[in-house]
Structures are given as structure tokens and as C-alpha cells.
Amino acid sequence: MTLLVVGSTAFDTIETPHGNAERCLGGSSTYFGLAARLFSPVRLVSVVGEDFPAEHKQLLSDRNIDLAGLEVKPGKTFFWHGRYSADMNQRDTIEVQLNTFGDFEPKVPESYRDSEFVFLANGSPATQASVVEQMNKPRFVVADTMDLWIDNERAGLLDLLKRIDGVIVNDTEVKSLTGESNLITAGKAALELGPKVVIVKKGEHGCFLFSNDFHYALPAYPTETVLDPTGAGDSFAGGFMGYLANCASISLANMQRAAAYGTVTASINVEGFGVDCLANTNREIVEGRYRELMQFVSGV
Amino acid sequence: MTLLVVGSTAFDTIETPHGNAERCLGGSSTYFGLAARLFSPVRLVSVVGEDFPAEHKQLLSDRNIDLAGLEVKPGKTFFWHGRYSADMNQRDTIEVQLNTFGDFEPKVPESYRDSEFVFLANGSPATQASVVEQMNKPRFVVADTMDLWIDNERAGLLDLLKRIDGVIVNDTEVKSLTGESNLITAGKAALELGPKVVIVKKGEHGCFLFSNDFHYALPAYPTETVLDPTGAGDSFAGGFMGYLANCASISLANMQRAAAYGTVTASINVEGFGVDCLANTNREIVEGRYRELMQFVSGV
User: Which of B119, B138, B143, B144 is nearest to B39 (CA)?
Assistant: First the structure.
């Protein structure tokens, strides 16, 4: 089935205790797309500046990512510079240049409007809502969000949550979204805000899925190599939505498997800088890790 | 099969954001025993002072905990006063009076020396080793430890680890024990120090089991009520060892189930102050939670 992602495309400069990367390809739509394309073709809506090189476009389109929705505007591409702490559990933003992404108004091409699966990467609730309005009855819309919007655009976010099917948040975000300090209580409370499924990412501790029919806990893939956590959340979302878009039904069992595939694509992503590992992996590697994850969870 | 615990018995004064408890029954052997007795009779070796009330002894012996190894010495019982942070993820020790526990030299009664399962609750490696020396070929010996011993009694601890079957540590402890910052790498590295199984407790994030044959990840029971985390680790160990002591073999499947029962007994423990909830629960409640945990992990 058809899968659309709307989000940022960026140049990232990343500093970690394991090394640095300068102006590498990044952005939520990129990480999402490179994970999702392992399961399903991806349609991308994003914006870049005139400095965005042809080889980056080539890298994406060579990997089953349709760039008909990638707008090129006068000016520069979104730039982010981040630095991770020694244990990589914290990161500081050293510099942000929004550039062409500053007034991003996603325009969904006519040919994309029938997309059945839609991922609204982190962005203002107003921007995310504008995408929903452009779609022609999508089957399953999932949004990411962050503290900035939870704190400053709460009304818009609460309105959005009533109009979408799922939300992907991390443990801190679901607590601040609901005002609940217990993670299980927070997950249930988030369900009451509208979405049919609430996916709580807990990084190295895995994820929870909450719906009215089930609660599900999945540990993370046991990776021993974490070089660069940038894009872990978006590559999780990409694996989750990509797998699901390829399923005949949005059943519990398929959502569980989708969460496991998201866990796998996120684990591959963090093992290299930027999108390097995601861009160079394939379905066979993914399936191998999926089996390892299932073994880790079942013990056999 | 026969199960022995060697550890502290204490009076605890506990302050949490949810309330306080004054001089309630505590100590590692107590929490362990009250969890383990749900599955198997428990033999206890510990020490108290003359101020230890008959009703506490009654509470324990009424619950299948054999107190033949509970030494009563002139003086007072070990006293601990702790205060939890607002999110309960940190605690400060306000006061410690070691009292009779200060020079605790565990004496395993003759009648206990054939115990097949042995849990060495947190204590100095020298004290723990002295118990191993008193035993008559136990089948499965597991030790708890803490940063104090990892940092200050490293040689003794490393020596102990070669002589026992399993170690139960938390995520911080296994990292400092092995010098590895990645939890999976740390778990594997701890195996190389001698034990056949390394159990890593991650609190609300569940636990990992590492052995040379398997790695296993289990999420925590999804409790929404955490009133007092005191004794969570010992009540996990109690459920784990108690269940295992009741099994015909120490197989992978039995260790997995044992970890799940430990998760359940720990979840019951944290829902009340001190040992209140553990003392008043029963096997039926435990089995209900075990089924819920399996549902949470499998999604069905």
C-alpha cells in the first residue's frame, strides 16, 4: 500500500564521543524514508535549498523513495549541529539554521493524496494538520511530536490527536503530554486524547504500544554499537510504518511485528553516523536482526 | 527443594512523596523471604537485636520462613532511614545504624547446610564467601552486590564470582563491575567473570538474563502504583529463586519463568510501604499478575 512521509530534510553536523560527521544528510523524512523503503515504496514531502546536492537526491531515489514532493526553494537547506554527552543519553543543540525549512508549508502533490499510510514527522501541529487536510481519506495516519509543541502549541496538538490514528512519542513526551508521571498511566491517558494507538519509545529500553484492545511491551534490539543516536526515533517510525503499509490488515499481530521491525531499523541506524548504515542495509540484514530480536524476547 | 537466604533484617524508616513509614520491618532477607515463600519454604540466616519484636518473627514464621538461623544478639537491630526523590528514581540515606548487623558473621545452622538453592543478599564479598564455605555442595548459589563492594572490595568480589552460579545486579552495577558502558556488552563481560547466569535488573524497564546459551529480555510488570520502591531488588530475587527452587531443573524455560515471577513479586512489593503488600499477597494473586505480564509481553 502507499506510504507518505512529511518532514524535514537537513544537513547535520554531529559530534559524539565516537567521532564527528560534518554536514551529512539528515532530517526526519530522510531517516524515516530510508528505514521505511526496506518494506514499502515511500512518497516524500519535504523542502530543501538550492545547496542540496544531486547525489543526496540520487541516494534517496535509488532506494525507492519518490521525490516528487521534495520542494527546492531559493536559499539554503535546514542545518542542525548537535553534540552528544559522554553516555550519549543527552544531546545539546549547538546551532540551528532553519533556512528554507523555516516557513515549510507542505504541499502534498496531487499524485500523493491517495496515500493510505501517512507519517507526520515532528513539526508544528498546525503544519501537521495542514497535511491531514490535503489527504483523501488516508487509512492510517501517525504523528510524531516533541516537547516544544506539547508545551507551546498544546491546543493545536490536542486537536490534531483527535484527527489521527496513532502518535509516536518518547517516555518524557508522553508524561508531559498527559501530566502523568507513571509511564503506563501516561500511555493509557494519551489514548483518551484520541489516537487509536500510542507508541512510546524508550530508547535502549525498547517501546510500549497502547491501544484500547491491548498493551504491548517490546525490548530494544540488543545492539552493542551505538555510534550516533541521531534519527533513531524516525528510523523506528520508518520501520514501523513501512512494515505496516505492506500488510493486508492493521491487526494487533501486524502492529507487534511492525514495532519489532521499527526496533530493528532503529538499531541499524544508530550503528553508524548519519544515514550511512540505513542507506547501506537491506531486507536480508533486517530479517536476520528481526529473528535475533525475537530470540532475545523469547529466550529461545 | 531447599532454599536459603543470608542477609539483613532491619527496621526501616522510609520517606516517599506518597507518605512515610516509621521503623517498619525491612532488610534484604525479609523482602527476599516474603517473596520466595510464595513458591517454596525459606530458610533464613540473619541477625537482629533484642529490640526485635515477637510479632515480626511471627509474621515471618507464619509465612513458611524458618527462623532457626535468625540470631538474636545483645544490642539493637540494624536501622536504616531513607528518603526518595520526587520521581522516586533516587534515594538518599538519611541515617544508618548498623547495630548488631555491623559485625554480622553468618552462621549457617547445621540443619541448613544441605540447602540446594542459596541467595547471598547484598553484603561484603568476604561475608558472602564465608557462607559458601559453610555449605555442603549447594546446587545453585546466587549473589547480589552493590557499588560499595564493586569499588572497594573488588578482588574479593571477583574471587566470589568464580565460586557462585549467578549474580543479580542492576544496570549501573553491571557497568561499573565490568567497565563497559553498553549494557549488553557489560552483561556478556560479567559472564566472563565466572557466573553461569547474570541477571541485570533495570527497574521499571524490566530485566535481562545473560548466559552462555541465551540472552533474554523481559519488560517489567506494568504497575501504575509505586508507593515505596524499598526492597524491589530483593523481592525480585525472592520470586526468582523461590520459583526456581520449586522446579525440577534449572532450564532456560524455568529461568525465564523465574524472572517473570520475580518481576511479579517486585511489582507487588512496590505497591505498599515496607513489606505490607508482600506479606499480604498469595499465590493466586501472583498467578494472576504472571498471566497479565505474559499478555503484556506477547500482546495477546
Answer: B119
Please check whether residue B159 is in contact with residue B129, taking contact to mean a CB–CB distance below 8 angstroms: yes
Distance, in Å, from the CA atom of B220 to the CA atom of B105, rounded to the nearest integer, reads 35
Read off the DSSP letter of residue B139.
Answer: S
Cβ-defined contact of A299 to B182 (cutoff 8 Å): no
Strands of the A79-84 sheet, one edge to the other: A19-26, A10-16, A79-84, A91-97
Instruction: Using a CB–CB cutoff of 8 Å, tell me whether B271 touches chain A.
Output: no
Euclidean distance between the first and the last CA atom of chain A, given in angstroms as a whole number: 33
Yes or no: say if B33 and B70 are a contact pair by the CB < 8 Å rule: no
B234-253 tens-digit pLDDT = 999 999 999 999 999 999 99
- What is the rounded distance in angstroms from the CA atom of residue A57 to the CA atom of residue A241? 22
For A125-134, write each residue's pLDDT tens digit: 999 999 999 9
For range B265-273, the mean pLDDT: 97
Has this prediction a pTM greater than 0.90? yes
Alpha-carbon gap: B78 to the closest alpha carbon of chain A (Å)? 32
CA distances from A202 to A18, A28, A208 (A): 22, 18, 8
Residues paired with A42 in a beta bridge: A65
Selected for mutation to probe chain B from A90, A207, A297 (highest B CB count within 10 Å) is A297
3 state SS of B134: helix
How many CA atoms lie within 13 Å of B131's alpha carbon, on the beta-carbon side? Answer: 31
A247 Cα to chain B: minimum distance (Å): 18
Architecture category of domain A3-298 in CATH: 3-Layer(aba) Sandwich (3.40)
Cell of A92: 545539546
Who among B204, B215, B225 is closest to A183 (CB)?
Answer: B204
Chain B contact present for A256, CB below 8 A? yes
